[in-house]
Specification:
alpha+beta, Beta-Lactamase, Phosphatase 2c, domain 1
Length: 536
């Protein structure tokens, strides 16, 4: 009997060694593809949800009670017969979980969830920034004595405020591939051991023979099982690997025949879908690049035309009575701000304006306003009359509801008198030689183009020698630093006071450069500045 028991122990160890070898082989083959499977599965689900389930992109209340969607998500967490994953959909507008395969998590605040599982926060922040994230995380469960190691993948669902998370237990996922094989080997092992025990009880001399036979049977069983494993799992995965290499070389049209185990079939379907998506994306990207290059060329031409319409300080505007300076720095290719100065007989008109919006439409409305003011200045006698008639013209058939804030001043070099009218624009600044700042133009009138019956008024001041006028748009005080700090009027006025004795052109260069540096060369809005100083 002692020999019998030793043979049984030897047979057990031999079979266990084979099972352990088989499991290690499965791990080495499947582990690299587990990560790819979960990433592609999550991407595929985000596409299906956006395409088939979302009808209202601002209100997702229907999704919470969509049984069909919940059934799809629960089914997607199964790999074979084993539930290996967990899926949750988060509404980022309220920062709450609205759907989850574990119903206890529905309605949870994501912040509370991150406190419960703090090592997921890095993945959450990466998803918020890039629109996708994946990686490992570890957490403790009251149902497990050891920490659980899982792999998480997240994607932002396109054109929505939703993100989807898919968490997968890699051990459960790999277990689903070869659990049937392990069960079959264990069944054979138990059966053979029982045969050894039953038969050797009657005749000890056959124990050695039976042990050899058992080992041969197990060995022979392992050959077809290994071949089956290779043909049904390894071969399709090798083909899939070759397809991934082709996709990496840009061959997105390559398709694989769907074969192998159910999990491998799902993986192949997902890769085929990925190839189609990449092919479509590449075609659209090519068209988009072509369109952007064409638009970029047109915008460059428009900007050159716009810059050519702005006045320059030519000899006609160099006088013993006054000095001028002006500078415009657009936030986009073309600007919605503008400045202008021109003579009305023996007087000098000074204009600064800011058109609503940005881009081509704002530039067109700017050109229209600029031309209209210049033409009306030839026939009107006061700044008030010029703005009133310009407003009626701009309000007529204004279906786009665009408007222009504008400050118009008319200066008489002989007397130093300045007549002005303000149509909803920033007040201008008057700085005397001692550095005292006075705001000019607080009239409370509407911008041009909004209401055709708007009324405007004219006011007058007398400028003394050395007085400095500063015209500007809101792009200066509203400028923002990378830390979201506003430039502000206080900083602006202090810089003007400090440099008030310099020439207007130099003051413009100093201010615009300072604001641009404050915004780190990333302009929030157009920066426009015009300075005027009486010197005689």
């Amino acid at each position: 009997m002692a020999h019998q028991e030793s043979y049984i122990v030897y047979a057990d160890k031999t079979i266990d060694s084979f099972v352990k070898w088989n499991n290690e082989l499965s791990d080495n083959i499947l582990t690299p593809f587990s990560k790819q499977y979960i990433n592609l599965k999550t991407k595929y689900l985000s596409h299906i949800i956006e395409k088939d389930f979302i009808t209202n992109r601002e209100n997702y209340s229907k999704l919470k009670v969509d049984k069909k969607l919940l059934d799809l998500l629960i089914k997607s967490t199964y790999v074979g017969k084993i539930q290996s994953g967990y899926i949750a959909i988060v509404d980022t507008s309220v920062n709450k979980i609205i759907i989850a395969t574990d119903q206890e998590d529905v309605g949870k605040n994501v912040g509370d969830f991150l406190k419960e599982y703090p090592n997921i926060r890095k993945l959450h922040d990466e998803l918020t920034e890039n629109g996708f994230a994946n990686g490992y995380y570890t957490y403790s469960s009251p149902r497990s004595k050891v920490p659980l190691h899982e792999f998480l993948s997240g994607y932002r669902i396109e054109n929505t405020k939703l993100v989807i998370f898919y968490s997968l237990s890699l051990n459960k996922y790999k277990k689903s591939f070869y659990s049937d094989i392990q069960n079959e080997i264990k069944r054979k092992q138990d059966s053979v051991v029982r045969e050894i025990r039953d038969s050797t009880y009657t005749e000890i001399k056959y124990t050695a023979i039976f042990t050899v036979v058992i080992f041969l049977v197990v060995y022979l069983l392992s050959i077809p099982l290994a071949l089956w494993f290779s043909n049904s799992i390894t071969a399709p995965i090798v083909k899939l690997r070759n397809k991934v290499i082709n996709i990496g070389k840009g061959n997105f049209n390559a398709k694989l025949e769907i074969e192998g185990s159910s999990e491998t079939k799902d993986l192949i379907k997902t890769f085929n879908y990925l190839g189609e998506e990449l092919n479509t994306y590449t075609e659209n990207l090519t068209k988009e690049v072509s369109n952007r290059e064409r638009i970029e060329t047109e915008l460059t031409i428009a900007r050159n035309i716009q810059e050519s319409t702005l006045p320059s300080i030519v000899p006609d505007f160099i006088s013993e009575k006054f000095q001028l300076g002006a500078k415009l720095l657009p936030a986009a290719k073309v600007a919605g701000d503008f400045y202008d100065f021109f003579f009305i007989k023996d007087k000098l008109a000074l204009i600064i304006a800011d058109v609503s919006g940005k881009g081509i439409s704002a530039a067109f409305f700017m050109t229209l306003t600029k031309s209209l003011i210049a033409n009306l200045s030839l026939v009107c006698t006061t700044s008030e009359d010029i703005l009133k008639k310009a407003n009626k013209q701009l309000s007529r058939n204004n279906k786009t509801f665009m408007f222009t804030t504008l400050f118009l001043a008319v200066y008489d070099p002989k007397t130093g008198d300045l007549q002005y009218s303000n149509a909803g624009h920033e007040n201008i600044l008057l700085i005397n030689p001692e550095g005292v700042v006075t705001e000019i133009g607080n009239q409370g009138k509407m911008a041009l183009g909004l209401y055709k019956e708007s009324e405007y008024i004219s006011e007058k001041i007398k400028m003394e020698i050395g007085d400095l006028l500063v015209f500007f748009t809101d792009g200066i005080p509203d400028a923002r630093s990378p830390e979201k700090e506003f430039y502000g009027e206080t900083r602006f006025k202090e810089l003007l006071i400090k440099n008030r004795s310099k020439a207007p052109v130099e003051i413009c260069n100093i201010v615009v450069s300072n604001v641009n540096d404050f915004e780190n060369n990333k302009l929030y809005d157009d920066i426009t500045l015009m300075t005027f100083k009486r010197i005689g």
